[in-house]
Amino acid sequence: MLARACSLTGRTLVANAFHAPECGSVEYLPGIAITVDADGLIERLSRDIPDDAVRLPEGQYLLPGLVDLHVHAPQFPQLGSALDAPLEDWLQTYTFPLEAKYSDTGFACETYDALIDHMLRCGTTTALHFATIHLPATRILADICIEKGQRALIGKVAMDHPDTCPEYYRDPDADTAITQTRALIDYINAHPHNGAGRVLPVITPRFVPACTDACLHGLGQLAAETGTRVQTHVSESDWEHAHVRARTGMSDTEALDHFGLLREHTVLAHANFLSAADMDLIALRDSGVAHCPWSNIYFANAVFPLREALARGLRVGLGTDISGGPIGTIWEAARMSVAASRLLESGTDPDRAPHLRGRAGARVSIETAFHLATRGGAKALGLNVGAFVPGMRFDAIAIDPAAPAGQIVSIGDTPPLQMLEKIIYGATKANVASVWTDGVLRVSPAP
After folding, report:
1. 277-322: per-residue pLDDT in tens?
2. Helix runs in 125-270, H state only
3. Is the same domain home to 438 and 310?
4. Nearest to 366 by CA among 336, 394, 343, 396
5. Residue 112 CB: number of other CB atoms within 10 A?
6. Structural domain that includes position 392
7. Strand extents, DSSP E, 61-136
8. 426-438 burial string, b = 16+ CB within 10 Å, else e?
9. In this structure, what are the phi and psi dihedrals at residue 42, rounded to the nearest 5 degrees?
């Protein structure tokens, strides 16, 4: 259950910890003493343990909090369902009707309250949220994240194109979309309980097909004026990728750059059909990709070339894409990121010879997946979290591999790095014992 105010600020926690500050490798920190200052920043790591130190319970492990780079917060009610149609039909049949319900602020409050509780309980301390076109409901999402302590970036969705958005669910015009986006930026930045800036606004054109050129240009200008981060979708499916090229004569990535939306810490969801030139442009602009391996299975008709993107210097993190896939945790996204990369490498067509079946050198390791789920996602957002390093904010989770309702199997002595592998592959909500952001306990151990 969510805890009342209980803090590690100004105290030292002793724990066996794992983190992955750099992609492809993991550090194990046995018995490390982590001192958190009064503002929730990591002050120092030490082997000297003060007498008044707090100790993590025996058998538990400390990990950085998980970072989810792609969440459609209003779609939480349909998580695990409505996955039987291609993207363009799925939006019109299931998703737009659901998102339209958020004109009811009572419904918004109930749903968003449940979502943030769920995410924190699963260990997701940072999330990048798409909301809906409704400004009041989006403000409610910001209020709830501030209250419950999730580090969050929240955007009012902009979508005004009459050819692709239904009349019952779209911004009436570009000016409205831009004006209300500005209003949300002002609301979050001036929020009286958000002085530390744990919740941030993000400019959120749904994707190029849903927005007129005037809307996209205006949002790009707003981003340049305010310095606000941007999130959107890019080259998610054959349909979206082809639609943008037919309309603009450019790739999806090039079109976003043209409109001024490809900026430092812009996060692009999916990105399955990027060319080498697209990847290089994203890297040049210091933008990043939210890799959503589960929803790509249902809507992309392709596997994101994760290894190639990392080799080209792209900032990449993981996303659940609630509810474009059947998963609700970054644990599952991390697992599938490894599996999808292996499928891309090995191929799946048994009628082809093994050496012709896949893409050589495409697989990634569990260490890479752990980095993407923590520090990699934070880097894409430009946030000072995701590892246990002095000067970073203390956002962390305690994992209990032996939790009775959990699914992690560990019999006898398990070497530390093998234990981390078991945690990544097996952790569920039941294994998350405690959750902190800014050093404050947000989810408390079970009694």
Report:
1. 999 999 999 999 999 999 999 998 889 999 999 999 999 999 999 9
2. 135-148, 174-189, 213-226, 238-248, 252-258
3. no
4. 336
5. 26
6. 11-64+386-443
7. 61-64, 66-72, 124-130
8. bbbbbbbbbbbbb
9. -70, 120
Rounded Cα distance between 368 and 355, Å, is 25
- Are β-strands 267-270 and 42-46 bridged in parallel, bridged antiparallel, or unpaired? unpaired
57 vs 398: CA distance, rounded Å: 9
Same domain, 159 and 189: yes
Angle, CA 420 vertex, CA 342 and CA 386 arms, to 5°: 90
Q: Residue 327 gets which letter from DSSP?
A: -
What CA–CA distance (Å, rounded) separates 426 from 366? 12
Question: What is the rounded CA–CA span in Å between residue 44 and residue 150?
Answer: 23
Length of the chain: 447
> Which CATH number does the domain housing residue 73 bear?
3.20.20.140
**Cα dihedral sign, 164-169-172-176:** negative
DSSP string, 339-355: HHHHHHHH-S-TTS-HH
Q: Are residues 221 and 331 in the same domain?
A: yes
Q: Residue 432: give its domain's CATH number.
A: 2.30.40.10
Domain count, the chain: 2
| 418 & 300 share domain | no
Find residue 396's DSSP bridge partners: 64, 436
| Residue type at 113 in one-letter notation | D
pLDDT in tens, 342-370: 999 999 899 999 889 999 999 999 999 99
